[in-house]
Design a protein that fits this description.
Oligomer: single chain
CATH topology: minor pseudopilin epsh fold
Strand content: 5-15%
Order of helices and strands: HHHHHHHEEEHHH
CATH superfamily: Iron/manganese superoxide dismutase, C-terminal domain
Strand order of the largest sheet: 2-1-3
Shape: globular
Mean pLDDT: 88
Number of strands: 3
Low-confidence stretches: 1-33
Largest sheet: 3 strands, antiparallel
CATH class: Alpha Beta
Distance between the termini: 61 Å
Number of domains: 1
Radius of gyration: 23 Å
Number of helices: 10
Length: 251
Amino acid sequence: MTAATRRTLLIGAGGLALAGSRLAAQVQTVPVPPPAPAGSPTAYPYAVPPLSYAYDRNEPSIDTLTMQLHHDRHHAAYVSNLNAALKDYGELQKQPLPALLARLGDVPEAIRTTVRNNAGGHANHTMYWQVMGGPGGDPAGGVGTAITRDFGSFEKLKSDFNAAATRVFGSGWAFVVVDRAGKLSLVARPNQDSPLMDAGPVLFGNDVWEHAYYLKYQNRRPDYLAAWWATLNWPRIEERYEAAKAGFLTL
């Protein structure tokens, strides 16, 4: 083999390696998240995630005492009840929370209602804390574009969302859900039911159980709904939107 031939082969091999590395970089643009550790919001034994902001961050829309009671007692009760319900069911303990909710039919009937209520309550509240703690305002970026495309305008979304939440009889939630294509839609659910029960990722949602607003607003649910928009963290919601399109949004 001549020196020129050897040099050509080496250059060709180097070019193939470089092309391969570039292709791998393109394929792996979105890293696969590691499994959730035990004691996280999504893996048994489940844990209440700490707030990423102070209890008074959502004042005046949501008062400090309501935030403390809602996070530290109500959410903690859902987690405690869920962990207790699953303590003798090793196979169910292996299920991440979204899978547990999507496969409620596989949960033994003796604990199914308890799991439905408390797993749903845990998932809903974990999402709720994440999307608040911001200054509100108007959405921007991809999620802002999607809201205009799918609802007509942000003002139209707020009007439709608040109307749906007002119509919830008794306790429940209103949600904006998102599919893998990034399309948004509005749904309401009773009690602690979650769109995750239909394998539908939640972009954001509002809690209309009385414990979410009664200390400040008493029976004036529409006032609470109107004020709640000023608590939203749109950069965080944008992150959730991108994660949903990539297939990585969990709760």
